[in-house]
Amino acid sequence: MTMDLESAVMEIIINSGQARSCAYEALSKAKAGDYEGAEEMMAHAQEAAKGAHRVQTQLIEEDQGEGKTSMTLVMVHAQDHLMTSMLAQEMVQELITLHKKVDQK
């Protein structure tokens, strides 16, 4: 794996982890009734996820569907981090919405 590819993979892992952490922090804030703080943390999660997705898109564009980029275990790991962080964000957003509805009653 080249240093550039290794850096790209690590950037996906780091940004995805940050996105997931921010999403769970948002959920903690929502559980405490701090919906403004929850939305702020979700915005941070989305920004971090965009960073990871941007790098992923660059890797896909460079590969051009031709298998130019070698698939390594760490790259699979990075993809797993990205997908789980995206799922976490979606689920946390739904849970925040549910917390708001419960608090309104």
Automatic annotation (TrEMBL):
<dbReference type="Pfam" id="PF02255">
    <property type="entry name" value="PTS_IIA"/>
</dbReference>
<dbReference type="GO" id="GO:0009401">
    <property type="term" value="P:phosphoenolpyruvate-dependent sugar phosphotransferase system"/>
</dbReference>
<dbReference type="InterPro" id="IPR003188">
    <property type="entry name" value="PTS_IIA_lac/cel"/>
</dbReference>
<dbReference type="GO" id="GO:0046872">
    <property type="term" value="F:metal ion binding"/>
</dbReference>
<keyword id="KW-0479">Metal-binding</keyword>
<feature type="active site" description="Tele-phosphohistidine intermediate">
    <location>
        <position position="77"/>
    </location>
</feature>
<keyword id="KW-0813">Transport</keyword>
<keyword id="KW-0460">Magnesium</keyword>
<keyword id="KW-0963">Cytoplasm</keyword>
<keyword id="KW-0762">Sugar transport</keyword>
<dbReference type="GO" id="GO:0005737">
    <property type="term" value="C:cytoplasm"/>
</dbReference>
<keyword id="KW-0598">Phosphotransferase system</keyword>
<protein>
    <recommendedName>
        <fullName>PTS system N,N'-diacetylchitobiose-specific EIIA component</fullName>
    </recommendedName>
</protein>
<dbReference type="GO" id="GO:0016740">
    <property type="term" value="F:transferase activity"/>
</dbReference>
<feature type="binding site">
    <location>
        <position position="80"/>
    </location>
    <ligand>
        <name>Mg(2+)</name>
    </ligand>
</feature>
<dbReference type="InterPro" id="IPR036542">
    <property type="entry name" value="PTS_IIA_lac/cel_sf"/>
</dbReference>
<feature type="modified residue" description="Phosphohistidine; by HPr">
    <location>
        <position position="77"/>
    </location>
</feature>
<keyword id="KW-0808">Transferase</keyword>
